[in-house]
Amino acid sequence: MPTVYLNGQFLPLEAARVPVMDRGFLFGDGVYEVIPVYDRRPFRQEDHLARLRASLDGIRLGDPHSAAEWTALIERIVADAPWDDLGVYLQVTRGPGPRDHAFPRDIRPTVFLMPLELPAPPPALIEHGVAAITAEDTRWSRCDIKATSLLANVLLRQLSVDAGCAETLLIRDGQLMEGSASSVFLVRDGVLLAPPKTPLILPGITYDVVLELAAAAHMPTAIRALSAAELRDADEVWITSSTKEILAVTRLDGKPVGNGEPGPIYRRMIALYQTYKHTVMRGKAAP
Ligand code: PDD
Fold first, then answer.
1. Is 146 a catalytic residue?
2. Ligand 1 atom with minimal separation from the 146 CA
3. Which residue spans of the chain are classified as CATH 3.30.470.10?
4. Cβ 85 vs Cβ 38: under 8 Å
């Protein structure tokens, strides 16, 4: 049974308990992060902690820990985890208090960390890609906050499960935003395209890694608003996240994307990503 951290204590997962008056339970009033760890080395931890701080700012909750304290907590979760590759799930809620939509005075945040198993994406998915559907983005207008209140994402993701697909790509006012739990990229005429970071999408850490690798490899890239029509006739569509890494979407709403197999730019990027990841794992690059 994995060791988790809850409000100052390390304990077995089944022993961790949160009061029912916790605002995370009552209102989804909290934020979270998922930090991938390869060979027990956190990948891009500083970027994840910076995004956590931005999410906390976004919900007007003070950061309960310094960077050094977060690092020590993450180190212990990683050291005690039963896997070498894992995700560290980290959640901060506004804490328990009388039920009132407005913030109660003098409440203390709840801090929770747990290890998640992080299997490498199956080679067949990298080789052949995944199917996705599109849906109207029903989320709020602060999707840049990595909030635990994920009801719209949950419902949107379930649509793809019901359709036997891996992800739901979200369209708002005719524009492509991201997936229900992933960032999205297109390739058209040899150019890698990504939607800009706005309050309507989560600023993905894997999104940043992909754009850095593309820049280092001098791949033609443009960051601009992308229409649903451009998605429909893109040569390649990719989804990225800390848990999925990079996957090609080879069927969209039941139709093949390009020739129905991962395209040449995807194959180049996944090779660059895997080389970079292995370099980080061997400790030869700053994560
Ligand atoms: N989700 N967009 C959304 C809505 C997401 O939930 C995620 C990741 C991403 C990709 O972000 P990153 O590359 O930093 O993982 C984009 C995580 C993995 C989750 O909720 O489990």
1. yes
2. 6
3. 3-117
4. yes
**Token pair of 89 as six digits:** 């799930």
What distance in Å separates the CA atoms of residue 191 and residue 180, rounded to the nearest whole number?
24
> Ligand 1: distance of its center to the CA of 116 in Å?
14
Residue nearest to atom 5 of ligand 1 (CA): 181
Q: What is the CATH number of domain 3-117?
A: 3.30.470.10
Which part of the chain is CATH 3.20.10.10? 123-281
- What's the CATH superfamily of 123-281? D-amino Acid Aminotransferase, subunit A, domain 2 (3.20.10.10)
168 lines ligand 1 (CB under 6 A): no
**Region 226-250 average pLDDT:** 98
204 lines ligand 1 (CB under 6 A): yes
Average pLDDT, the chain: 96
Return d(Cα 169, Cα 179) in angstroms, integer.
4
Q: Which of 92, 95, 91 is nearest to 26 (CA)?
A: 95
Q: Is the CB of 93 under 6 A from ligand 1?
A: no
Which residue shows structure tokens 């602060």? 142
pLDDT above 80: residue 227: yes
pTM: 0.96
pLDDT at 285: 53
The pLDDT value recorded for residue 281 is 75
Ligand 1 geometric centre to CA of 146 (Å): 8
